[in-house]
Amino acid sequence: MKYGDGTIYEGTFENGKFNGRGVLKSPDGRVYTGQFRDGVIHGQGVLNFPDSSQYRGDFSFGQFHGKGVLFFQDGREYKGDFRNNLIDGKGRLVYADGSWYEGEFRNGKPNGQGVRLYPDGSVYRGEIIRQDTAGVRCLRSCQREHLRGNVSCRPVFRQRNTCLCRRKKI
Question: Could you give the CA distance from residue 67 to residue 142 in angstroms, rounded to a whole number?
Answer without folding.
Answer: 33
